[in-house]
Structure formats: structure tokens, C-alpha cells
Amino acid sequence: MKDDHSTPGACDCRESSSDRPCATALTAYRRALMEGRLPETEAPACLRALQLVVTDREAPGSLIPVPPETASFAALGPIEEAIVRQRRTLRATRAALAAFEGPYADVHRTEQPALSRLAGRAVINKALDAAVGSCREELLTAQPGGGRPAQVLSEALPRDLAMLRRGVRQRTIYQHTVRTHRATLSYIEQVTSAGAEVRTLAEVVDRVIVCDRDVAFVPVHEEPHTALRVQHPALIALLVRHFDHAWSRSVPVRPKDAPPRSPAITSDLQRTILLAVVGGETDASIARRLGMSRRSVAEHMRKVSEQLGSNSRAQLGYLLATSGLLDT
Question: SUPFAM superfamilies per the record (predicted)?
Fold first, then answer.
């Protein structure tokens, strides 16, 4: 009596993976091996694709099984040939692109790099002198850290006055604390008399110098005495936007017409200090960031502590955060 075999049915291999055929195909192949052939109508498509069954010329309508090793030559041959063609195309395309590297390098060789690293004070000063010396329209500078050393100011003054005489517009932002720094105030008085504009903020985040919106200089904090010369238009535009935003919030310095510290400036400084206290900063950190002494920071905190009735720094931070005093 002939064994009754269930019909495998069509197979679309949805239950299989890329490296493992479906159960239907394995069952059909096993049946073909046992019976010596398989009706064409009952052969899953994947068996044909893998060349594991071929037409039986002696029995039309039937397929006979092929050993996997033999099938591999027919199934893998076209794939391997395609890989060889793709590799050949890859090599040819790579060689073609390489031929264009020479013309590209020739055209761009004369272009200025978007970013240049300047190492050492002498190198930085020389680059700054060249940029400021060739400045024709506008110089923007933001100077953090409070009062500047007298020697630095004495070196910068002749260069800046010469630039102002050429009709260059100079705008500079310092921190409020320069208003009581004698050397910096003397410099400010001389350059403002020559046409410069100087303003102050409680905090200037970073040093930046922009000449004619063509070249800018920014420090590299991770590397002492190192700066970047920026010549990419998009980066310079970003620096100018940040500068203009700070400029709009700053207070003009007029050495002859106003006292060093107006109530608005004192309030701005005090608010910045108290926000830092709420943020958990130490006196030393606040003083360094605002360019002032630790004693001045402590004095501001003492006045507010007395106002709020605080007996400790922790209590002061809590009262500041809950009193609404720093709300805007």
C-alpha cells in the first residue's frame, strides 16, 4: 500500500530566515529524496530557486532532487559573478573619483582655512595685531574676567586709537566690575573719547574678537595660551548674533558723566551673584566668573542675608529660591 503523503502546498518562505529555509521546503525536499522525485505542482518555489530540484527529463511533470553540494554551483554561481562585477564597478568608480581629487585640491589650495589653531601668546598677538591693523569698518570685542592688566591695556591702547582714527566703529563689552578698576577705566576713557562704545554686563560668558565680520578669534579653554582664528562666514555670523544679544542687555560706560556703580548695575551684579548661590556655586567660583574679589561677593551675600533674616548659606539659598526675590 502506497504511503499517503500530505501535499506541501505553495511556499512563500515567510516563516523562514535569510539563512534557514522554511519547514515546508525541508519537508518537500526530504520527500523528493525518499521517493526519488516530486510533482512539479507540489514543489515549493524556494527549492527551485536554490536549484535543489531540477526537471526530470524521463518523467515530464516531475522534479528530481539534487545534492546541495551540486546545487551550490548553479545557485551560487550567478551571485558570485554579480559580486565580481560589483567589485569591478567599485574599483572603477573609486579610480574615477580619485582623478577629480587633483583639480579639487588645486582650486581650494589658495583658500583660507575656516579654522586655524594659534598656539602661544606671541603667535596669537601677532595674528590679532594683523587683523586689527587691517580692520576698516567694525571691531567687536567681549572681554570677561573683570579689570585687565595695565600692561595689556598699554599695549592695546595705541593700536586701538589708531584704528579709531581710521573711522572704525569699536564696540566692547566688559563686566560691571571694570567700573572700579582704575587701569581699565583709564583705557575706557581714552578710547571712548576717540569714539569707541563700551558697555558692561554682570557676566561676559567668553572672550571674542571680531574684525569687519570677516575674521574672529576665540580662546581654546582646554589648551592654555591657545586660540582659534575663525574665518567661516556662518560661524562668524553666529558669534556676532551672540555679541549683539549681549550688547542689547548691557549698560553704557561713560567715565566722566556717571558714577562707577548705578543702582541698576549694583542690582544686576547682586542678582547674578544670588542666582549663582542658588545654583550651589562657591564664593571663589562666583568671584572668578564675575571678575571680582571674594570679599565683594561675601559683602553682597551679607546684605541679602540680613534682608531675608538668613543665618547660613544653605538657608540663604532656600530663602532666595522661595522668596520670589529673583523672579523676573
Answer: C-terminal effector domain of the bipartite response regulators
